[in-house]
Amino acid sequence: MNKVALVTGGAVRLGKEIALHLGKSGYDIALHYNSSQEAAAQSQTEIKNLGVDCRLFSADLARENDLIKRVVDSFSRCDLLINSASWYYQSNIRSTDQDSLTRAFNVNVKAPFLLCRDFANLCKTGNIINILDNKIKFNQYEYAAYLLSKKSLAELTLIAAIEFAPEIRVNGISPGVVMPMSSRPAEYIEWRLETIPLKKMGNAGNIMQGIDYILNNDFVSGQILTIDGAENENHIGRNAAEYGL
Hints:
7 strands, about 45% helix
């Protein structure tokens, strides 16, 4: 029987790449999506073509918290939780309204918290990987609610690693410039690369290598693996708001 991985936000972008990678590695996939129904169906087809099972689970993570139970009821198990779903919002403290702040924390902190809790209580053993952002190394106030929620998720990762040990390993991956939004112009990407010591953009494969490292090394827990070409070590952290987008 294949192991089962739940990937939140698995219909598009990095979440989809993670789901496909795990499918290629022999996992059956519980693919969560919110509003991207058409993309989720396409991703499901691609994953099933790899010879593994893939089942869709729709949920607004800002409101629902029974996703683990639904997955376990469907597959009778869940061995890996990837918290990849995220709500991204550009706004400084002064201009952030209460609804935006609430949604940022509901999706980026509360939902992973409850999913981690339910994974520990219902699945008992396995791995949890939280997808973060290399912005957590900076204090870019132009992304106040988003950034603070991701910093909180990083702390949750460390706390859960202690509480859930030794049965469950909990780690985080903090990507840098890997899959920029299509709205980002080439000039902006080049501007960002200037402060990355490796002077290049990463790719989804770099993140998959990080996931494999975590899953294959059973002595790794409570770690946040930053994959960003050492951008975070520059302590500058260029961003779209500073660029003028």
